[in-house]
Amino acid sequence: MQIENVGPYQLHLIAHELSAPNTWDPFVEIYRFDEAMQDFRCVQEKQRASAEPCASYEEAIERAREAGNALVRNWQH
What we know:
This protein is of the alpha+beta class. Helix content is about 25%, strand content about 45%.
């Protein structure tokens, strides 16, 4: 798992290894900083970031990053 900050958002990039060799499922979960709570709160529960599994951990994390950034961009417009 990797955590990246995008403005007030925090992306949790997750890759789950599947039983088939060299296959990983990418997921993303998104938090937003809440000024009143002075902490991050979940605004997007963990969701699959791709319909297809990935061939490596790194590829799965990149797919999760792309999906998370796309969601954040949509919220900002």
